Amino acid sequence: MSFIASAIGHQACQLGFKVYYTNTIKLMAQLKMAKADGSSIKEMNRLEKQDLLILDDFGIQPFDHQSRSSLMEIIEDRHGKRSTIITSQLPIKGWYEVIGEQTIADAILDRVVHNAHRIELKGESLRKKQISKESEKE
After folding, report:
1. How far apart are CA 68 and CA 138, in angstroms?
2. The whole model's pTM is what?
């Protein structure tokens, strides 16, 4: 899924759109640091201005209170104004548990899922296939 998100992001860049591609865990850590040093408003404004925000590897680890609040703010700021792509190995029904706090999870998923175009891939991971091909060459 990351490959498809990356390709869409690349095409958007070629068409002149502002794109920000990030690993979700790294973004949440970055936003925590920004909050600590007083630059969180600047960071959130930067994210809001991106035409396309790609959050890769969503749901790898559960959100803590601060990350959950940041995610809610990001989704709220972008809802109906800008595009967001979220990639995840986790089915959407598992997102409630990862996000935590039912009310916030409902609010986030209401904004994300109900207006989304969903692509669910089946089959072998491209990374696994690539590793397999590299092994055959050796």
Report:
1. 45
2. 0.85
